[in-house]
Amino acid sequence: MYLASKHCKGFKFVVGFCLGTVSVCVIAAYFLLQIDYWLVVENRPVNADMIVILGGDPGSRLRKGLNLYDQGFAHRLLLIDKEAGAWAHVTHNGCKDCVLDDKNVVILAGSTSTFTDASIVKTYCLEHGIKSLLVVTDPYHTRRVSLTFSNEFKQSNVSFNVISSDDYNFLLSPGNHWWSDQPTLETVWLEMIKCVYVIASLPH
């Protein structure tokens, strides 16, 4: 009787362990299939003191930022990239219809990553009394930018909203089987890895 009870408990443990493992695998698989939705932050623009446009832009970020500026969401633009001249390249090639001459624009150099972007922008905001931002970047970058800026700005009184450029260019948008297209697959995996790195780097 004792052995039968022991075997029964052992069987229940094995079954429970297997069911738990299958459940975790199913949940993980579902999350991975939906990861493209998670990566894209869908914020609506609100009025702010300044619009920040992150570098590495083929033109879509600048176009979106200027559109927000023209709609009156902010009356100042801040462009940040590795070098100030990078934006001249964007306006001459990627976004020829983007005109900066008549805008209230500040260009900052020194960007090497999203981490440095957040740090440089925060320093500028604190030095110039900026209290609110709209931060424009590409759709699949929005989650990582949001995580990075949240960590950098959490001890400040500056609020921000990350805004997608809404331009997927040659990539598949969420809901279109991101794993079926090589460039989209690579982008999603890279962004997921970067997000994990950002989360792991956050102070606990």
In summary, what is this structure?
The protein is 51% helix and 12% strand. With 204 residues, the protein is α/β, with parallel strands linked by helices. Helix 6 (142-153) packs parallel to helix 7.
From the structure above, extract its key features.
7 helices, 204 residues, 5-stranded parallel β-sheet
Overview of this protein structure:
This protein has 204 residues and is of the alpha/beta class. It is 51% helix and 12% strand. The chain contains 7 helices and 5 strands. The protein has helices at residues 2-33, 35-39, 60-70, 86-94, 114-128, 142-153, 182-201, and strands spanning 50-54, 77-80, 105-108, 132-137, 159-164. It has a 5-stranded parallel sheet, sandwiched between helices. Helix 5 (114-128) crosses helix 6 (142-153) and helix 6 runs parallel beside helix 7 (182-201). The chain is globular, with a radius of gyration of 22 Å. The model has no long low-confidence stretch (mean pLDDT 87).
